[in-house]
Amino acid sequence: MPNRIAALYGDYSGPEMMRAGLAVLKAVSQKNGFEYQIEAYPFGGEAIDQVGEPLPEQTLAGCQAADAILLSAIGGPKWSVGGQSPEAGLLKIRQALGLFANIRPTHIDQAIIDQSPVKASVLENTDFVIVRELTSGIYFGQPREEEIDQALDTTIYRRAEVERIVRVAFEYAKGRQQHLTVVDKANVLATSRMWRAIVKEVQPAYPEVEVDYMYVDAASMKIIAEPSFFDVIVTDNLFGDILSDEAAVLPGSLGMIPSISQGASGKALYEPIHGSAPTLANQDRINPISMIRSVSLMLRYSFKRTDLADQIEAAIAKTLSQGVMTADIGGQAKTSEMVSKIIQNL
Amino acid sequence: MPNRIAALYGDYSGPEMMRAGLAVLKAVSQKNGFEYQIEAYPFGGEAIDQVGEPLPEQTLAGCQAADAILLSAIGGPKWSVGGQSPEAGLLKIRQALGLFANIRPTHIDQAIIDQSPVKASVLENTDFVIVRELTSGIYFGQPREEEIDQALDTTIYRRAEVERIVRVAFEYAKGRQQHLTVVDKANVLATSRMWRAIVKEVQPAYPEVEVDYMYVDAASMKIIAEPSFFDVIVTDNLFGDILSDEAAVLPGSLGMIPSISQGASGKALYEPIHGSAPTLANQDRINPISMIRSVSLMLRYSFKRTDLADQIEAAIAKTLSQGVMTADIGGQAKTSEMVSKIIQNL
Ligand SMILES: CC(C)[C@H](C(=O)O)[C@@H](O)C(=O)O
Ligand SMILES: CC(C)[C@H](C(=O)O)[C@@H](O)C(=O)O
């Protein structure tokens, strides 16, 4: 039975991004004998237009049946924020599929280091991963209230929710440089103090991993001032949202960065970290690398095809070193040229 | 009656910092005929050692009676975090004195621009202020619970709390470049949606101020990627904590940056943004500028002595341009040398 991949083409630049990713998937698979089957489903703004909600039942069912999910990017000026918004679909799919761990790699491509707002000397040896809790915390905590005279949001963490994300982070740290930084606000928040307690309980199972604790305000400085300090960061949903986007400025373009949202079953959703770039749509200008890297991560983690993932990564590096780059990373290549070149370099 | 200033000398490097600030205050006052009276009170770790709590009643009463408060820095490895910690004293004094608005300027000193992790080209025209709500939100919201199986924190904002901080921010924007950015997470949080509604109510009173809205994750990118975009940022207690520390990496050293925590009555507390630097204490090595600038802000805002504040700022700029700098900003000067030079340059 071939591997089943659900493809959510998304809005504005989303479809172009998805086509780029799938073209590279096709090429690398034909070369190496990887069998798969793509099923496309509406999601986000497109789904709101078609059926009035961002995550239609049929899309959710398709994602549940799939072995892995590829998402490009959703949302844009056509749809409102809040209520039946494209973004609400993101929160729903994360929760419905139990995708509790968001993995955000920060990797510096030497070929585009000049694009970074941060000095090359500061970026030296920077390579870290943020493990963000994705299905709890203030994003989902009840009560949430808007009254006449006050408004209220609730951060709740249940012990089991913290334990599973902390384990994911320790596993990543074990497979990397064995350094885990727990980011919280334990000098103020009760939830942070529970996180620290649970880290201390899990820690003995990972004696090789060195653990340190950092307040979120200090972390927000260190990510820019000394990014090479970090190997794996684990943090809650809200802090992870802020810090992972902050870290995304380091490589020099959001167009380079993929992400994983993974669940307990091993099922995962792969997507670029950036949005649907409405102003670039349909002009053959979007950087396809974030999507192609999402495909590569999918091959590596969901389908255990490290060989194919390595080939894609090598082809991207070669393409960049040949100076074939879209405008966001300082070049003049069109999306289609980058995709052809990457396929040629496979 | 002379102007009454409460001085909280603090821990580790705190007393050195305070002495530096007061030496400059004395010099500039003698030159210009400014009369004042200093009353020192224990606060933070020192107060815990003396009377068992970080904010003794007598200290609070002294601060209440004073026209302005100077604080150096508190805390350090000697005292625990949480419970009767020095930091708990900070939260208490803010609330007890009603210091609801924390003003954090981000100003780039050209003389030390090489110290910044961010490229000089990115820092061009960067000069903004973060207005952080300081006495509400998740820092003070109830319930806060740590149970066996879960923990919980609550973000609450009352309408009046938001309105007063928003007004402070509009006032700052009016006196600067008339550009206010409201930072929140309105696509998720009910409190953020209330903030936006209140901004829209207050806005008509400030027709000259242009207002935009930005999610906190996007803001955490833009502060590094394009800091010159901002003029005044207004945000809640937690987001302000994170973003103002993030912004503090831009100038190149925390040792340069003062802050104001102001209340409704016009009373305010002035302090460097950095901690007590335990490893530098008593070695004549700490950068005194953050404290001297706190004094300058006090003269400007609490005592309306713009002339004295301007003289201090000019003396600091001249001293830096003469290459007299402490180690944190790339020089070899001792604290005492910098202080003498600044006084000489007055
Ligand atoms: C769209 C928004 C709700 C979402 C989040 O905050 O989780 C986005 O910022 C992200 O990080 O994927
Ligand atoms: C010490 C801590 C509670 C405090 C805060 O988070 O407000 C500090 O980080 C600050 O910003 O002054």
UniProtKB/TrEMBL annotation, chains A, B:
Signal peptide: none
One Pfam family per UniProt: Iso_dh
Highest taxon of the lineage: Bacteria
Pathways involved: Amino-acid biosynthesis; L-leucine biosynthesis; L-leucine from 3-methyl-2-oxobutanoate: step 3/4
One GO CC term on file: cytosol
Broadest EC class assigned to this enzyme: oxidoreductase
Cofactor: Mg(2+); Mn(2+)
EC numbers on record: 1.1.1.85
Domain Isopropylmalate dehydrogenase-like: 4-342
Subunit comment: Homodimer.
Function according to Swiss-Prot or TrEMBL: Catalyzes the oxidation of 3-carboxy-2-hydroxy-4-methylpentanoate (3-isopropylmalate) to 3-carboxy-4-methyl-2-oxopentanoate. The product decarboxylates to 4-methyl-2 oxopentanoate.
Similarity comment: family membership: Belongs to the isocitrate and isopropylmalate dehydrogenases family. LeuB type 1 subfamily.
Designated name of the protein: 3-isopropylmalate dehydrogenase
